[in-house]
Amino acid sequence: MHVLLRRSKMLIFVMRLAPLVFLVTLLHVFLAVRLLPALAAATALWPLFALLLVVSAAAMPLPFVQRFPLPERWRKPVRWVGLLAMGWFSSLFVLAVLRDVALLSAWAASRLAGFGMVRAQWEQTSALAVVALATADSLVGFFFARRTPPVRRVEVPIAGLPARLAGFTIAQLSDLHVGPTIRAGYIGRIVDQVNRLGADMIAITGDLVDGSVPELREHVAPLARLRARHGTFVVTGNHEYYAGAHAWIAELKRLGLKVLLNEHVVLQTRSVHGAQTDEEVLESMLLVAGVTDYTAGHFDTAHASDPRQALHDAPPLVSTRILLAHQPRSAPAAAEAGFQLQLSGHTHGGQFFPWNLFVPLQQPFTAGLHRLQDMWVYVSRGTGYWGPPKRLGAPSEITLITLRRADD
């Protein structure tokens, strides 16, 4: 009976994986056909490249399978290999396609100009260049992904900001993606870095996890050590809904984090003791709101993202209003609702080429500080990474936002 059960699990595993395996295999065959003949003629190391292609094709689908029939001790290294292969393959595939375009263009130019082209030499040299560049940028990208993110300091000039709020600081974390390769040690280093900043408040703008609470509870636990005068506020990202948002919301609250679900809090940023006027008390108040992910309504209609709802019953005399929203596409609704600043993430700044080219097709802003009507939008490049441990041209960041008066 035990043997039959194990075989049935294996069969289900293979069936679920079949479409992805077919596509990945097809793409690797393309690379083998386009690169291996030229590499075989250029270097005696071509069998190593062939072996790497086989390992890559076999390992790449595995990180996307939540449950597969392998002993626990093998699951982590298998996922690591699969995600590393994904980053290497991505660059290899793009460079191989660009190589084909370059070779075709060179051949066409030589025909039009009427001179001969040493095609074999060009093919061999370019094939070696493709493999070398893909490997080099994967190694460099690995370093930039796995280092402790540097602090990016951003000043936001807000018109009409009360003098008592000038200098208020927010440490923003976004897109941590705790999961197969981002674990407790990595998160612990980030927590230590943030705590050293001594920010007035901490904002986590979504996509905190890539997995279930039982699987990742111990790896998210270091976030309970985050320290700021006004606490840590969290909003959900799309990946929380993939992983079971309700369970994660409960777990984050258990850790002492304040999850904002289309709601707000009013912070009293200065002491109210002593002989202060009502005006002085009001001027030291800051409204911080948070919305659920832009797509949350597809997973739970009760969680439909709504910046206006986040201001329900907000005190009208508290004029400085900040919104935490995972996706930049929440910005038009936030500007209409009357916020002065929106903090977002989601894009990873593109993470690495060529994915950075696709972000503007979905999001109004990719990274950095932008203006929309009367509202500022800051988009973090992310503190972690998704998928391959690889970042190029889009460095990870811990952001320290400082509010300034626009007329200072």
TrEMBL record:
<keyword id="KW-0812">Transmembrane</keyword>
<feature type="domain" description="Calcineurin-like phosphoesterase">
    <location>
        <begin position="169"/>
        <end position="349"/>
    </location>
</feature>
<dbReference type="InterPro" id="IPR004843">
    <property type="entry name" value="Calcineurin-like_PHP"/>
</dbReference>
<protein>
    <submittedName>
        <fullName>Serine/threonine protein phosphatase</fullName>
    </submittedName>
</protein>
<feature type="transmembrane region" description="Helical">
    <location>
        <begin position="12"/>
        <end position="33"/>
    </location>
</feature>
<keyword id="KW-0472">Membrane</keyword>
<dbReference type="GO" id="GO:0009245">
    <property type="term" value="P:lipid A biosynthetic process"/>
</dbReference>
<keyword id="KW-1133">Transmembrane helix</keyword>
<dbReference type="InterPro" id="IPR029052">
    <property type="entry name" value="Metallo-depent_PP-like"/>
</dbReference>
<keyword id="KW-0378">Hydrolase</keyword>
<feature type="transmembrane region" description="Helical">
    <location>
        <begin position="39"/>
        <end position="59"/>
    </location>
</feature>
<dbReference type="GO" id="GO:0008758">
    <property type="term" value="F:UDP-2,3-diacylglucosamine hydrolase activity"/>
</dbReference>
<dbReference type="InterPro" id="IPR051158">
    <property type="entry name" value="Metallophosphoesterase_sf"/>
</dbReference>
<feature type="transmembrane region" description="Helical">
    <location>
        <begin position="127"/>
        <end position="145"/>
    </location>
</feature>
<feature type="transmembrane region" description="Helical">
    <location>
        <begin position="80"/>
        <end position="107"/>
    </location>
</feature>
<dbReference type="GO" id="GO:0046872">
    <property type="term" value="F:metal ion binding"/>
</dbReference>
<keyword id="KW-0479">Metal-binding</keyword>
<dbReference type="Pfam" id="PF00149">
    <property type="entry name" value="Metallophos"/>
</dbReference>
<dbReference type="GO" id="GO:0016020">
    <property type="term" value="C:membrane"/>
</dbReference>
